[in-house]
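Notebook entry, structure prediction.
Reason for the run: the old model in the group folder had no record of what sequence produced it. Starting over properly, with the input documented here first.
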Amino acid sequence: MPRCSIISARLYAILHSPLAMLLVALAVRLVVMNHMQSFHISAADDHFRFGFETGRIARSIASGEGFSSPLVKPTGPTAWLPPAYPYLLAGIFKVFGIYTSASALCALILNSLFSALTCVTIFLIGRKAFGLEAATCAAWIWAFFPYAVYWSIGWVWGISLSAFLFSVILLVTLELEHCNTVKTWLAFGLLWGIVALTDTVFLAMLPFVAGWLVYRLAHQGVALATRLGAFTLAFVAVLSPWLVRNYVTFGKWGLIRSNFGVELRVGNYENSTGLSAGREIHPADNEIEQDKLREMGELAYASAKKREALEFIAAQPETFLWLTLKRVYYFWTGTPQLLQIFRLSGRFVAARYVLFTSISVLAFLGLFLAFRNRAQAAPLFAVALVVFPLVYYVTHPTPRYRHPIEPAMVLLVSYALTTKFSRQSFQHVGRRHRES
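New structure, fully documented this time:
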């Protein structure tokens, strides 16, 4: 075999190797983390900027005070956030110390691992949904994707885990169409329960994802009653301990997280720009509001803020509509905060639009092409782009809120690129590999 053919065959094998994708992605994140020294944490505000509410709850757990006090001051038991990531961070605090550089390093390495593993799930999803070309392209894009890199090494929060779990949900949903035993539906229910305890926003997508799957299996003549029962049983089993804890603590059934009313008010108030109110009215930054929360109790405070937000919306529906349209725009093009986060200024301001907006445009182009070409998984991707952002359209967006669905967006970007520009080149390389 000619030497060039051997090199070509090895290169082809590496480019299509999920292990190579994972290792390169992890190496990229660790190198950038070392360069940025992002594991050196600030002691300002008693380390509140490290993990914000997540860090505070994790500190309370690690200190033996239970799931409590998400803000700067102690505020008592909380359901401000779903429990999965705060407990994970609390475990790190237990082993490596509370608010230490060692804990920060461990948390960011773990986030980087979640982000790198997403390369593998993206590849497997893409191969099933769009073919090998799009799958390979998408996985390598994710390996170097600036936002995937930054959020994993610069933000102690559950977003990298959420993105990974969402990609697992997509992959398992596609698998269930062909492997739909009762055991797999039980596993599906367990997975959705974990997702709900990690990022509650995904629950809005559950009826649509399940509906797509039920529709396709019903057309295959699959008996669904037992399988749906197994799914429901597993899903409820995972959620039950947290729901029971919240009922015992707050006297309210069905509570997964408590802060929706606060976030609704933060985005909808007099002189709002459609973004987070920051120090103006958010209790994380406003001491007066924080004191109110502590005096009223978390649920009563959140209920009062929800009432204030709804009164504002009812009194000024045109303003609310305008703010909502602005938030839709910000979600897909980036907020002014994006420039601050990535330290962009001057001639780099255009990068906000060039990258963040281009990803959005190409993702919707990929979705259009998926429907036009009758890709079976197209509705699943549509659910991600249409349903997931809805809560942020009425509250407030920041760039990191989009990250959990960016695996789907990168897959659609890849599909758009490979469908329109790169199919012949991938086929040429593959043909050479087969001939060698």
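Summary: The chain has 20 helices and no strands.
The old model has been moved to the deprecated folder.
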